[in-house]
Amino acid sequence: MDPNNAAASSAHDLSSLDLSCLNEAERIVINSFMRGPHAHFEHLGVGPNVKWDENLSKRAFYHLVAINHATLKLLVAQARLCSMQQMNAPNLTNGASATALGSLHPFSLGNPATSVTMASNPLANGPGLRTQLMAPDFALALLGNGTTPHASAGLGALNPGLYNPSASILGGPSSSGASSVLPSPSAHTPDAATDANHLPNPDPASGRQELTRAGRPARKKMKATALDAALRTEMPNWPSVQDDFVRWTRLAWFEAGFASTISDGAIGVQTRRPFSPFLTTTFAQVGVHLPSMSPNLLRAFNSWVDMHLRSLRDHFKGRIDKPHAGKASLAARSLEDTTFVSLTEFINNMCNSYNLINSELSVAAVRALCKLYLNVRNMATAKDSEGVLRVHIRDASNRQPPNILRGTLPQDREDDDLLTLITECGAIDFDLPTDTSDTMALAVLMVMSTSATTLTLDQAGCFSSLSGAASAQVNLLTNVTCEWFSVTMVTESGTSTISLPSSTRPSAHISAHGKDFALSWPKITEGLEIDIGLTLELQHNVTLDAYELRAKVVNHRPKAKASLWQLELNLRNVRQPEDGSAFFPAGYGVRYQGAFAASGSYPSSGATMQWMAAGGGAANEGQGLYLAAHDGYGYIKFLNAAAVEDVASLSIVYLVEDAGLPFAESTMPFPLTLAVVGGGDDLWYQAAQMYRTFALGEAQWMQAGRLHQRQDIPGWYVNNSIWINSGWQCHDIFNETQGDPHTVLNVTRRIRERFNTNMALHWYEWQQGPDANASARYRFDTHYPDYLPPRGGDYFGTVVRELEKEGVHIFPYINGRIFDVASTSYAQHNGSDHCCRKANPSFGAADQSFYVESYGSGSTFHTADPTDIYWQTTLADTVDALVNTYGVEGVYIDQLAAAAPTPDWTSWHNHTKGGGFYWRTGIVDIIKAMRQRVGPTVPLVTESNSEPYMDAISGFLTLVAFEPAFVGTKALVPAFPAIYGGYFVGFGDIFNAEDLADQDPLMARVVAQFVYGAQLGWFSLGGVTSGPDVDTSCGKMGEYDLWMSESSDAIVAAVEYYGNLRVCLLEYLAHGRILAPPSLSPAPAEFMAVETAVQNAGPFPSAMSAVWLHEDEASAVIIVAGVLDAGQTYNVSVDLTFSLPSLHDRQVTVQEMSCDGLSQQLDVMPANDIQIYDVTLSDRNARVYRVHFGA
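and the corresponding structure tokens:
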């Protein structure tokens, strides 16, 4: 029988049905059937490409067809009954009507008047299954008889609560307290009278149904039905095991119609679910919750599943325990009577015993049998073996080398048997203890295995090993790691942090395919006055080939004074050898070697992204751990990483929404993702590509598109190469002339002429305030958010327009985050109402106070709530005036992406309290408010490159990104442009006056900006250069006179050269993305700055290099850039397949290019072995080589 035809033939003629009596989920089921069987399976979450001979076995596909055939029968019957009632049809009280409806009952595949068998059903090939399953009276029991107050509701009459395992299979109370809706005797077929004593009579007065046998509940009556008779026939001891049977089937893990969960104590563990996951998946896919389904319909589903799991349940449930008195278990018989020569024979024997066809077993069933086989074999050989048998098997295609064994194997294990295990079992991975013959003590370790990562947990849920596909022999963990997840609770008594797994063993469940698992602690708060449960799920992400951890905390006593504060995943004991490294996402990214400690609040300059990595080195065969929060909405969180003596730890802390407030349930709204990645010295790059896959696919901030797709990134802005600022000092030390319009006009004109290129001016100290007296001027970091009018009044606008005519684009400074408590606006607009309040961990988060900040100016600030409408409007007013009144082309709004969020617990603020993603949405709304005033084409930029603001912010001042050294044990790596290249604009670094006196460090900073794709400069023109106010920690910033000196001619020419080269390579450096770096031989020499009163004193490399991919991914450029004015020669080696695996086995064309349009072809080379010899650099120049990938 063709399954497609079977499903299609069951659809009947539905066009005349009245579907008004069906609920939403039921109408979806019928409508999907009308579209055809494959459309229906798509609704079921199976997918449109399901075929019996591909990813589903024929047996599983028939199960789906039969289940949905039964569903359709039920729904059609309900709709037709509704149609009859609406046509004033007589009550269904005669045999003919009953027979008519009986023909529609769910399991009647043939003549309704005859007993139904499953002989024609290819699924019913288990022993003894050719027996009557359902009689018409049972169908009427499902549908209602039309004579009770509930009958008009049909299948929807019963209480839509969850199934009660202690009730009968179809029993359960109604919403009015009545028993299940059962037909009256007159609704039976002619032999119904013999069954009359089993049926309740309606009591119109009470609306309840009475029982005709004293005190016997409705579920006992059902044992006299044909269904119960079938169960008795199949299982003579059914009365004694019914409750256990029903309970077990509710716990069964159901995959495509085949049971593959094994009971606790044998080869797996159980999970508690009110309905089979098949039903959950079925209706979750169409957006319908199970409680909205008719309870009888759900129960019919589950009853059908129960019956077809029966034979499998006999096989799996408790069959590996010790023999019980009076009967021998399957496991005992296997050990005593059978010698299993190979896994194949074992599987064949099991299939023959239960009439299962080996070739049609689902993958999950094969894996389950493999696990059972190993248990049996292990018990038979345990007395002769010691240690632990560890079996690591690759994916179903066996793409990796068959490196299977680790540890001690049973002596009789044969090589051909192991190869059979690979073939039959596919991608499974598990450990079995072989040091005991006590089968009840066998505790299978939970092991999740993908083609890239194998993660092993012991019986307590502790991480015991973490290894990658490159070598199963390498364990990235130095020790077993327990207490890797913690929950921080607050009560009236104080704060408690519970770390798990600990001595409290969880209940656990492994999925059928062996790649997902769940740990549950019903109560983690022993010894406390609260009752809190925790569930952790690790699920395999197929796209990323990684594991995603999800957490759910339940408060079983919501009225108790207890609340949740934060959740933390802390992976300790990560092996980081001396030659290994770690990555932390500050700025563009920092690579650490050796001991270190780093932390950052996300989103901020200290944690611009949400991922870390650690490991690498020869001992790890280049592999490391990737840990990330794959959160596409930007929830507030905290990242921490450290390493001591070759052991690293990585942790992510999630501040929960409404932290400290009463709660019933809290689910982490994003997964924490962990995986093993390769990469060796460039471990950071491979980890970055995994994060890039997530970000491009799920992150909200990617929706604005690439640079050329955005209106707020005009062409002149992308093409800009050099930035200057009017004068800035890191400790707010300014002289009087730095922001004066007359001074700014004069010095900017001359610098523009000196560099002979367009540039952007970041203008500080432009504000005056309402008092025109110089002594009353609003100085830097005072009076925020009050700025206007500007210094010089209308003359400020005149200077702006004059400079813009000469090719200088003006970006005045404002602050978007802090509120001066001494400002006029704070006093006039109840400033405290618009500011954030912090809370110490406490129940109710009642202990609140303002965040207080102060900088070099001495003013006191509170942090404004970015979601506050007043704050958004006030900032938009200022930007409106600057653009539309004074003519600036862009505005710099400080701190938005640099400063850490200040979680807010103010009760009347319109966002979640404490945790949440409101910080991102608030800042995005600030920018939206500004754009409503100035239009979409004005660049609005801020400090630092925090990812979640990319869709709103036009560019980022990258001071923090370029703060680390470029080589050494704490070095900048361009992870951010490796992920987001082509989607953002970065500009700027801190340059000191000392850098111009010692020109090589300045040139190193400029070259770093160039090779990493940023716009150059941010040279500070004004500043205090002498006297007691000179900044001795950050260095002198006033550089104008030095730039204009003849002694700087060479360095000016070099900066101009790299600025022009950047414009020439914009299609790569701005619109493309950076790849893994090339290798230079010999390694460039390193040097330190002569002057040390600067933030980055080195070490600096004498040359830097990079590979950039074009946006169309058809070519790349290899850049080698000189820092020193002395000659240097290098050989360059590039393996493009490391970054672009699609180029494997490809030949590429390499040519040296120049910006004058001339190029010289070098050779055709393998993409994985590009060699360019004798690359000579002189006079701080660069060599550029274009690589064409070809067809």
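(Above: one complete record from the training split.) The two ends are 47 Å apart (CA to CA).
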